[in-house]
Amino acid sequence: MPPKAGSEQRYTNKTTHSLASPFPDPAWPLVGLSDQETVRDLLCELLAPIGKYRRDHVEPSRGKRTRKRKRVEDKTANGADNTQDSMTISKLEPPPVPEILHGLTVGYNSTHRALEGLIRARRIGPHLRNSDRPQDKGDNEDETPQQLAAIFVDRASQPKIIHSHLPLLLAAVSPTSQDSSTISLVTLPNGSEEKLSTALQIPRVSMIGVFRDAQGAKPVLDLIAEKVPPLDASWLQVQGEGKYQPLKLDTKTAKVPVLPAKSVRREQARIEDEKRVLEPR
User: Which of 18, 154, 169, 197 has its CA 20 to 30 A from that of 92?
Assistant: First the structure.
């Protein structure tokens, strides 16, 4: 029950305990702010052809109602007009999409699918026969997933739970920094989400992956190799030693409002109900 008008709400400190992992927390590679901005600018230049293509040849979505209304109008239109319109549309077919689009993963879902595919390919290994490989329906057994070179994340624009597991996923793909499949994890500066969205001409994007064979990506990948340190997977090395790790607890203290006892709250509710009944109508 909320406090009465004029009364001061009291607060008390409440301490909570929860189990935590005994292993060290994954650390993101540290990159200077100026280097982050340079990487972001090069990435936006790489994405610019996609944005130009979408701006010139892709009609922005106006929702399902607009598409439904357009289908109804097409059905009721004159047949001759439809034929003429189809001929006009065939003459105005858009050009093929920029090649760089095939060398990227845009957004959370596509980036994670690429990482999971690399982890699955690494776990299966070349020593298994094709008949022993677990496959999804429609998958090509001889298909090798594309190798990611870097993942760019604007961490400030999204909740921590969205990206906190990325170091672990990348370490599962390449456990050591000497591995040829090492993937760079790059933190972008604050405000990068807006610039990336403008470059791609889409409403929102804060995570992008670049494949090693992406056309035109050499400048940004060379800069990353020079400025971004490899991912430190020391927590996996500690885990592999087979040593006992002591229990670890997370202790947090927060201020919470002080509520009256249940009997007091019940009595206050009864008094309020009587006042409402006795009030003149």
Answer: 197
Q: Which residue, 270, 181, 222, 178, is CA-closest to 39? A: 222
Task: Tell me the pTM.
Answer: 0.67
Beta bridge partners of 19: 249
Read off the pLDDT of residues 12-24 as tens digits, 9 standing for 90 and up: 888 888 888 777 7
Residue pair 24/236 in contact (Cβ under 8 Å)? The answer is no
Assign residue 157 a region (left: φ > 0; alpha: ψ between -120 and 50; beta: otherwise).
Answer: alpha
Q: How far is CA 42 from CA 182, 195, 228, in A?
A: 21, 12, 14
| Structure tokens, 70 | 């357009």
Token digits of residue 135: 């496959």
The string of pLDDT tens digits covering residues 24-77 is 777 788 889 999 999 999 999 999 999 998 888 887 766 666 666 666 666 665
Q: How far is the C-alpha of 147 from the C-alpha of 261, rounded, in Å?
A: 61
Name residue, tokens 């439809």: 82
